[in-house]
């Protein structure tokens, strides 16, 4: 079985074609600048890379070009479109409308478009555009929606509710939904395999630390709490996002800076986080080199990020009543050794014995253990693979 995984943004469309028997990526690539001048597709297949420059006024043309690349003489990996058994689409927000991966029907499409757009106004309309484009170009192929929020659907009410009037939650769906669910699910599963244990036996805190960062408590294979909230603005401070902040401080800031509601939310999403604190960059590589050169605010941004992440690890150990494993994943989690060290510093009381040498080792793309042999809590670096989870869930549903 071959599954095409599609991740559509407002002006981009990334894809992978995965062979489910071997779980190998047969081809991958991405269309950039859809609807903008100078659009192009960078595609890989057969161990080769090719760039297609073609005007892509919309996502339909983009997906047509992707299929063209999959059938290409040099980099093509299939003989006909019929070899693609299904398409799995990444969707950021499901609200309470979808709890798990869902086969697309006219009703499902209607719910996606009419109910969920306001929950993720930048992301869900793009996913729907990508979906409609695929449906037009491949009308006979089953389409499946896989939601970033699904893994968090097991959170109990006490974890996902905000302290607002219960009727307001009921009427408007204002609650914690979380994000990065496919990544947390994947790395928690890989951790159990690596440790040779059943997921049911383990209490794991998964730290997805990238441009957007979230931390999740996975108890017995299920999410019981996560740091992101109604939107991915909540939790730890991130590249440019503020993370958690007192709502009254937000109103105060808006008044002082003369910002409207939407300007304030944009400010909190785009001008804050480690970028705002350091005044230098949202990229952790820049912060590390800045801190090394003595820039105090770069150092402060790194300290804040690690401190806030550590607090979630501690909180989730308490929420689960124990801790067997901490997982680091995504751009920072996989690559930034000083952040991992700072997060784990001072957690000895929980049974953490950190192995500095292993932590400083090279990232070779494999799973790495960075706790000492006698550490009660295992610490693992696990490269995430959201596309594989989407492909697996699509195949399972079929
Ligand atoms: P996104 O949320 O955009 O997917 P990523 O998971 O790619 O983000 O993480 C981006 C962050 O990872 C940046 O802050 C970057 O500095 C950090 N990072 C550190 N080292 C590397 C590296 N070798 N490759 C990629 N990202 C890295």
Radius of gyration: 21 Å
What is the CATH class designation of the largest domain?
A: Alpha Beta
Please work out how many helical segments DSSP would assign: 15
Fraction of residues in β-strands: 15-25%
Protein model, in words:
By secondary structure, this protein is of the alpha/beta class. It folds into 2 domains: 2-147, Nucleotidyltransferase, domain 5, CATH 3.30.420; 195-381, ATPase, nucleotide binding domain (Nucleotidyltransferase, domain 5), CATH 3.30.420. 39% of the residues lie in helices and 20% in strands. It has helices at 59-70, 106-115, 124-137, 157-160, 166-172, 181-195, 247-257, 261-270, 273-278, 284-292, 296-320, 330-335, 337-344, 356-360, 386-397; strands at 2-8, 13-19, 24-32, 40-45, 48-53, 86-91, 102-103, 143-147, 203-209, 213-219, 222-226, 325-329, 368-369, 378-381. Adenosine-5'-diphosphate is lined by residues 210-212, 239, 283-285, 330-332, 335-336.
What are the main properties of this structure?
single chain, 398 residues, alpha/beta, Nucleotidyltransferase, domain 5, 8-stranded mixed beta sheet, 15 helices, globular, binds adenosine-5'-diphosphate
Secondary structure blueprint with pairings:
Layout: E1 2-8, E2 13-19, E3 24-32, E4 40-45, E5 48-53, H1 59-70, E6 86-91, E7 102-103, H2 106-115, H3 124-137, E8 143-147, H4 157-160, H5 166-172, H6 181-195, E9 203-209, E10 213-219, E11 222-226, H7 247-257, H8 261-270, H9 273-278, H10 284-292, H11 296-320, E12 325-329, H12 330-335, H13 337-344, H14 356-360, E13 368-369, E14 378-381, H15 386-397
Parallel strand pairs: 1-6, 6-8, 9-12, 12-14
Antiparallel strand pairs: 1-2, 2-3, 3-4, 4-5, 7-8, 9-10, 10-11, 13-14
Helix pairs in contact: 1-3, 6-15, 10-11, 11-13
Bound molecules: adenosine-5'-diphosphate.
Adenosine-5'-diphosphate binds at residues 210-212, 239, 283-285, 330-332, 335-336.
